[in-house]
Amino acid sequence: MKPPAALSPLGAAPEASPECLSCDPARAELHSRLSYVLNAHLSPGWVAASFLLAEASVRRAGTDPVTGGRFPAEVVFEIVLERLPAPQRARLEALATRGTRRIFVIFLATSEVCEWSAERATFERLEPDTYLEDEAFLRPLPIAAFFDPAKAASAVLYALEKRNDPMMRVIKAWSQAEGELAGRQVNQAVGKVEAVLTVLRVRGLELPPEQYDEILTCRDTYRLSDLLERAIVATCAEEIFA
């Protein structure tokens, strides 16, 4: 992960009411996309959870032998509009003292992500091209995927490939088979091109340059077969493309 850039302008400006936030379509979409990306990137033995429209967290799967309940969240994401209100900031800072290893704040209005720095006791803005690396994630997670549906979909596909997902194996097998078929078809076409040119040369049939170009660039095996037959039986060059 890249070193964080300048400090984010986090402050105690009043945030919109929970009722307002719960009706914010953009916030709901971001939260849904965050959950989508997080779940795809989880390493084995980790689970993600979402809370209302403001928070998502990642914790170890199973039961904590110490408490008998679930394991505490180790990675937390908090979604805010423009600024982090004092009550939310205090709650997140308290999480850091209780074992939450990493805390991120996602700013909806500015498409920025900040991470809590225990060393500096403040939140620091991450560069837009930052990838989050953590034992909880199967592969580095791009924060740009939180804000862009297309990047989110790409990130999920890469994560599924890393996970060796069965359907991804099927898709790759299909793609490989299609590539091999296309390669065979190209080879067949090239062979037919050579055959047409050989017949023309042996029979002494001269074509205009543009017709030679058409033959050389053609990859339609049916068309090339037709040209080959014409080259064999034609009494003159003009009959080949007649």
Describe the structure.
With 242 residues, the chain is an alpha+beta fold. The chain has two domains: 18-163, tt1808, chain A (Alpha-Beta Complex), CATH 3.90.1570.10; 168-239, no CATH class. The protein is built from seven helices and eight strands. The strands form two sheets. Strands 1-2-3-4-5-6 form a six-stranded mixed β-sheet, with helices on both faces. The protein has a two-stranded antiparallel ribbon with strand order 7-8. Helix 2 (25-41) runs parallel beside helix 4 and helix 5 (166-203) packs parallel to helix 7. It is elongated and about 90 Å long.
What is the CATH superfamily of the largest domain? Answer: tt1808, chain A
Radius of gyration: 30 Å
Backbone structural class? alpha+beta
Q: Beta-strand percentage?
A: 15-25%
Give the total of beta strands: 8
The shape is elongated
Major sheet strand order: 1-2-3-4-5-6
CATH class of the largest domain: Alpha Beta
The appropriate CATH architecture of the largest domain is Alpha-Beta Complex
Low-confidence stretches: 1-20
Summarize the helix and strand pattern as letters. Answer: HHEEEHEEEEEHHHH
Count of the domains = 2
Put simply, the count of helices is 7
Q: Termini, distance in Å?
A: 65 Å
Helical proportion?
40-55%
